[in-house]
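Sample A.
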Amino acid sequence: MKRPPMLTMLSGEQKLAEIKRLYYQTTRPTIAQDLAKAIDLVKSMTSEEERERAAVYMDGLSQMRSDWARQHGWKGKKSKNTGRR
């Protein structure tokens, strides 16, 4: 009988290493999914110290997304509330 693959828990260092990898390897087509994965990793970190170490990479990923969106005229989600009554 074939056993299902084992899920491994990542250490704080492994999570940070994955966020760094995402930061250095992200591309315009993959930025949305890479940023989402990085956010999930940060949320799973157990200490404030771990999150602080990841902050610079998270900021960089966010900045890349914003820059690429601005260069290509991407629009954010439109608000349903226009403020008119």
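Sample B, a different protein:
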Amino acid sequence: MQQVLRLFLLLEGASFVLAGLVHFGVLARGFEHRSAAIAESVIGAVLLVALALAWRLPAWTRTVGIVAQGFALLGTLVGAFTIAIGVGPRTVPDVVYHAAILLALGWGLTVATRAPADTASARTAP
């Protein structure tokens, strides 16, 4: 289960970093939005730091996964809200990305909360 949670953290974190690079104008032009880029970069960094912690402290994988994905979900909901009220970027890719990442975060958070509690047995797993 730890490896599944780490995979969620890796994919979600990488996804947010890529979205941030798009909004900074590094990977694509025409989608620049500084506030979105900063928010996505922070969320991506939190998820990737959580991945590093989960890797370094396997007994904490579940807890770290819940906290980091909960933070990312909250931040993404703020982003979706800004799209809904017209403050954030409102392109089709932005809306699709937010819908997809909300599903991924919800799924990852569900997996994390249903995982066995962080115990001594988690420390002995490969």
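Observation for Sample B: The CA atoms of residues 65 and 112 lie 6 Å apart.
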